[in-house]
Amino acid sequence: MGRLENSGRTIEINCLRFTYPGIDGHPPPGSKPLIDDFSLTLNAGDRCLLVGSNGAGKTTILKILGGKHMVEPHMVRLLGRSAFHDTTLTTSGDLCYLGGEWRRDVAFAGFEVPIQMDISAEKMIFGVGGIDPQRRSELIKVLDINLSWRLHKASDGQRRRVQICMGLLKPFKVLLLDEITVDLDVLTRADLLKFLRKECEERGATIIYATHIFDGLEEWPSHIVYVANGKLQLAKPMNSVKEMSKLSLMRTVESWLRKERDEERKRRKERKARGLPEFEEQKEGSRVTGDPARALNNGWAAGRLHSTIAGEDNFVFSSNRVHRQLK
Ligand SMILES: Nc1ncnc2c1ncn2[C@@H]1O[C@H](COP(=O)(O)OP(=O)(O)OP(=O)(O)O)[C@@H](O)[C@H]1O
Questions:
Q1: Average pLDDT over every residue of 226-240
Q2: Where do the domains of the chain lie?
Q3: What keywords were assigned to this record (predicted)?
Q4: How much of the chain is helix, strand and coil, in % rounded to 5?
Q5: Predicted confidence band of residue 168 (pLDDT cuts 50, 70, 90)
Q6: Cα radius of gyration rounded to whole Å, the chain
Q7: In this structure, which topology does domain 9-99+174-255 adopt according to CATH?
Q8: Is 285's C-beta closer than 6 angstroms to any atom of ligand 1?
Q9: Is the CB of 99 under 6 A from ligand 1?
Q10: How far apart are CA 35 and CA 265, in angstroms?
């Protein structure tokens, strides 16, 4: 497989701004964008690690890049095209998004198929037409798939391996990975990362990989991007990150997140001392963990409560209202 003809920019994010729609399908008036002023350019061959705390916006960014949320066409260009508007990006296999929903569905070429039925791994994998047999064999080997696995009986990790195999059958140009390796054993994860690295080095593919697991990743990324509260904090080649910090990758990211959390705690304390609600005005979709009664007392849910509230849980706040209880 040759390198991509266009060995230049593959992902261009220009001043991206995004707000999740409220229950009426529109961003609540006056709401702060969840993702704001986010710009990033990646080139063919780049392997970019996307890091940030829970709720920072990583999945949202990957879904926007994967064409799952609409933004203005100039804000996100993949291979020079708009990910949301140009559906051929996904159907051709040039753009591949592997995310969390994959536990339940196989997303292939833009279609999502439930995988609860009694079907063999072989039927799933060989059922996809127009695939290079050599690539298919390599993937089956890399992911150590037993073709006789019945998917409804397979373990989470086995099912995940089949799903990843399906997603990678077509030689993608841009791959978006949202924490898909959690179920994989160490050996499979290591072999998959090696395969993905080869895809970038030999074919000039571009990968963005959002993860909280840094085992075995020390030498994998070419770039690292750190996002906090929907804003870009840092985007650097891995070499520069190594020059900046003598710590391991995990310790480096841990130090960034610790600093972020300490600053946020300080801000909350100051707000409380000034008699303001402990949590800052909630951006549409911000996640708050804790006792909703406390949030209510702090003035958060002044409006109508849409969710059944019970004990400690996560809630999505829309301006001053709790509008959705997260599972
Ligand atoms: N469909 C939705 N509607 C409204 N808000 C949402 C929706 N999905 C996510 N959010 C909110 O957007 C924010 C960013 O979520 P996102 O899933 O992008 O974060 P993340 O960095 O991927 O987090 P994690 O590391 O926990 O996976 C969170 O505050 C979340 O509550």
A1: 93
A2: 9-99+174-255, 286-326
A3: ATP-binding, Nucleotide-binding
A4: 30, 25, 45
A5: very high
A6: 21
A7: Rossmann fold (3.40.50)
A8: yes
A9: no
A10: 21
